[in-house]
Design goal:
The protein is of the alpha/beta class and about 300 residues long. The chain has 11 helices and 12 strands. Helix 1 packs across helix 2 and helix 5 crosses helix 11. GO terms for molecular function: DNA binding; DNA-binding transcription factor activity.
């Protein structure tokens, strides 16, 4: 038994399917199946009960998995320590970020990560919420910065801060004198919105569905910046996270809080395995708290698992 076989076993155990595990490991299914059979022969135990749809782990597999994780983590830490000693890049951290939180968090986070972990190579991907969750599950992302709670089973969130949805209108809009806009009023407004693949759009549609309504969509764009640039030239409205106002303030736009009810948003770090990513989560949360507690940050971040 070697660490490669243990890593292959963990992938099959977590995926419950040889095909998905092989894709995650970037190897062929026959090669992966052979490695698992060799591991079973070496240990003289059956690790999986095979069915037509998925692999079911045996009691022996549960026991091996609980022992394999700390062994693999220990080996990874040893390898990283040696690389750091030789002055090589330690490892890569892949983070998926929603574009509606990207502008307020990522630029300052990158500089803080560079100073705290100069050997860490950070890869940032701007993605939809659905794509962030899909990539976390298949292992191509380490961490997501997204809205909570995560929608896919098997994902866990650590709350960073709370925001709220606001209505954004041109400065000459009929509702310009209103301090707040009720949900019923907003439901009547012709809107320029992000596409239906975006989580903000899905949250908005869910709120209106509670009233038995659908959004009055007049136009769609796939970037928040494009919407904010276009809005002053229309009589349309949109809905966006209130925190975005700090980065996109303009005399040509007015940001109105929603009421009756307000629509809260929770933004957090999302990962697949809290235990294995604990050090990374703590690092990012600490660094992001510094960003959020700056002059434009929320009053206070919230601790705990979502």
């Amino acid at each position: 038994m070697d660490f490669k076989q243990l890593r292959y076993f963990v992938a099959v155990y977590e995926e419950g399917h040889v095909g998905r595990a092989a894709e995650r490991l970037s190897i062929s299914q026959p090669a992966l199946s052979q490695q698992i059979r060799q591991l079973e022969q070496h240990l003289d135990v059956s690790l999986f009960e095979r069915s037509s749809k998925r692999l079911l782990p045996t009691l022996a597999a549960h026991t091996l998995y609980n022992h394999a994780l700390p062994l693999l983590d220990g080996m990874q830490q040893a390898v990283e320590a040696l690389r750091h000693f030789k002055g090589q890049a330690l490892r890569t951290l892949a983070i998926g970020v929603l574009q509606t939180v990207h502008t307020s968090l990522v630029p300052q986070m990158l500089e803080r990560v560079r100073k705290a972990q100069p050997h860490l190579v950070v890869q940032i991907y701007e993605l939809t919420g659905l794509e962030i969750e899909r990539r976390l599950l298949n292992g191509s992302l380490d961490i997501g910065i997204s809205y909570l709670p995560a929608r896919q089973p098997g994902l866990h969130g650590v709350l960073l801060y709370e925001d709220e949805l606001k209505v954004v209108i041109p400065a000459d809009h009929p509702l310009r004198e209103f301090k707040k806009v009720s949900l019923k009023q907003a439901a009547e407004l012709p809107m320029l919105l992000l596409g239906e693949e975006f989580q903000i759009r899905q949250i908005w549609q869910a709120q209106l569905a509670n009233l038995g309504r659908r959004p009055q969509v007049q136009a769609e764009l796939n970037t928040m910046v494009g919407i904010l640039d276009s809005l002053p030239h229309t009589r349309l409205a949109t809905v966006l996270p209130g925190r975005s106002q700090d980065e996109h303030s303009s005399h040509a736009l007015l940001w109105k809080p929603l009421s009756e009810p307000r629509v809260p948003l929770k933004v957090g770090l999302v990962c697949r395995d809290v235990q294995r990513q604990q050090a990374t989560l703590e690092l990012l949360r600490t660094l992001l708290e510094d960003v959020m507690n700056g002059p434009h940050g929320p009053a206070s971040p919230v601790d705990g698992l979502a």
